Amino acid sequence: MLYSTLKALHVLSLIVWIGGMVFSQFFLRPAVAQLEPALRIRLMHDVLGRFFQAVLAASLLTLVTGVWMLGRVAKQVVQGGGSFEMPLFWTIMAVLGVAMVAIFGHIRFVLYKRLGRAVAAAEWSVGAALLTQIRTWISINLGLGVLVLLVTLLRWPV
Ligand code: HEM
Asked: How do residues 123-141 score in pLDDT, each as one tens digit?
């Protein structure tokens, strides 16, 4: 029961994180592209601020539940007298998952912070450049997330 609960939390967190990235890249950004810079950048700053708060919780929950599940499986195998060998697709999930959290950290604590300063100083060209960088890193994280989902759900390579 605990294992299933951890897995449910793991997947629900990923739905918030990956679903939010899809929404922001494919629906929100194109819709606000025609707004004048000051309005667009202020709006994106506000929306991303709210989204990143949710992602902070979701990414930490993904990490904690993932490591917890790994630990439980490893402990059970070792207690049963076996030696724990992690399937390759779990290793890929864990390594790329940690990379995704690190990329999110860069987006939230470096780029988004700078965006906040640009908005406060009404430096719209700086803000626009930062939004482009944030968009690029979100695309990379979305690509990694989809790759990890495919690897995990197809259970390949074993
Ligand atoms: C942050 C490091 C991560 C660790 C340590 C980790 C670890 C785990 C573990 C141990 C499981 C249980 C697997 C099983 O019972 O078969 C699991 C399930 C799962 N993980 Fe992760 N994970 C991490 C990140 C991610 C990421 C970033 C994604 C997707 C983008 C992801 C997607 C999934 C999915 C879809 C499942 C359910 C698989 C199934 O039951 O078929 N995980 N994870």
From this structure: 999 999 999 999 999 999 9
Ligand 1, pocket-test mutation among 93, 138, 155, most atoms within 8 A of CB: 93
Beta strands in 5-76 (DSSP E): none
Global pTM value: 0.94
Nearest to residue 134, comparing CAs of 16, 34, 55, 63?
55
Structural domains of the chain, count: 1
Closest CA to 58 of 97, 4, 110: 97
Q: What's the CA-to-centroid distance between 135 and ligand 1, angstroms?
A: 25
Q: pLDDT band at residue 99, thresholds of 50, 70 and 90?
A: very high
**Per-chain mean pLDDT for the chain:** 97
158 within some domain:
no
Residue 155 falls in which region: left (phi positive, over 0), alpha (psi -120 to 50) or beta: left
Query: Could you list the residue range(s) of the whole structural domain that residue 136 is in?
Result: 2-153
